[in-house]
Amino acid sequence: MQWSISALLPGGRMKIRLNAAARDSMARNLLTRISKAVHKRSRKKLRVYSAEEHGLNPDDVTSAARHVVKTLVDGGYDAYIVGGGVRDLMLGLHPKDFDVATNAHPEQVRQLFDRCRIIGRRFRLAHVYSGRERIEVATFRGGHQTRAGREHLAMTLGGRILRDNAYGPIDRDAERRDFTINSLFYDPLHNIVLDFVGGVPDLRQGRLRMIGKPVVRFREDPVRLLRVLRFAAKLKFTIDPAMEQLIPELAPSLQNISPARMFDEGVKLMHSSAADDTLTLMRSKELLGQLFPYTDQILKQDKNSQHLEFLRRALRNTDQRAREGKSLSPAFAYAVMMWPDVCQIMKARGSHRLERQDALIVCGEKALEHQAETIQIPHRHAQMIREIWRRQAQLEAGPRRHPERVISRGYFRAAYDFLGLRANSKGPLQEAFQAWTQAQEQYRPGSTEDSPRPRSRRRRRGRRRRA
């Protein structure tokens, strides 16, 4: 006996003949995991892609993610790989992580895993830890039309979602996601992809399209304005005109986002391996001023494009490091983006009356105050930013006596790389950069010849203890 999936799924789109003796369990499992209500609502929308159609290999999913999916399914729940992991796999890229969507509530997920932690207030999630890998597990979100959905929803008058923990079926969850290419569900156990919103055709056509009305979805979460440009630059996709025309108009809505969340979004933009192209898009869509207002104003007034060339050179270097899998520092990226403001403050305030290093300290603090209006930089990153700027005065002068003392100090490498980005092909900065490069080649950390002699400890004179 044979089962035909095309006869059981709506639309008859999947043309695979299953042998009942070997693959009957797969068919039954698939049918039971998709309820009749979901079938009825998505009769014309649901598209099931087989292995021959999507071309994915379950082994490309990490063992930790597969383990989480299998544990949830064995526990009686639905579970799929979702989001950017599925998107990148179908594009032939290497996902940095994998997220899981399930109909199990966070408390139920925690009961199945020993190492699990529930986080979030706006969206409650479960983090499952397997070795060094962390898998984010989210419960299917439902619609706002039901009574339960309205009870778990908190919105502003402008339509921005503050809290939304209304759970629902898989098809509602697919419709609640932002872009069609991020709303694909991959089952690594049966190697099938579920597409409720036409994400696979958009992937193949290189098109970035919003699910639902773009103006409503942007107002629900203005951060999606930044995500549009980040995905368009990273994936080289074209933006749907219905979204593109709204971006400059709705850009001021980003002012309602908390400065702490804006910091994380800024890091994603600069570490996306396409930061240079993202900067170009942000300037053309009037979004750069929402994150870096002072830098954006300076770039508009910069007739010689000196600051823009520095930023693009630095971002191209960051993109190269990201593609090579090298470590990236959020503090270094923010030090780069705020450097035009530091230079502008020094020029406007006549800081030449101070020593170069003192002037950089004073102007750097003012630049951090400016940035705090839109982005809240954590203290540990702000301290590194200060050190990078302050040490520019010392490095600009070139190596002096005992350069190994400077090289062995913390933050030297970051300040040295920053100087290299500032240096042109010719000029005093390039000469200083080359001198420090040679000094590092001569200095061998840990050697007794190059390291300074330790100071001898003198015994403190004092009264002798009486016997």
How would you explain this protein's 3D organization?
The chain is an alpha+beta fold and 467 residues long. It folds into 2 domains: 45-205, Beta Polymerase, domain 2, CATH 3.30.460.10; 275-442, cca-adding enzyme, domain 2. It contains 25 helices and 14 strands. Mean pLDDT is 84; it is low at 1-24, 147-152 and 447-452.
Tally of extended strands? 14
Q: Number of folding domains?
A: 2
Query: What are the low-pLDDT stretches, counting only 5+ consecutive residues below 50?
Result: 1-24, 147-152, 447-452
Mean pLDDT: 84
CATH second-level architecture of the largest domain: Orthogonal Bundle
Output the keywords.
467 residues, alpha+beta, Beta Polymerase, domain 2, cca-adding enzyme, domain 2, 8-stranded mixed sheet, two-stranded antiparallel ribbon, 14 strands, 51% helix, disordered N terminus
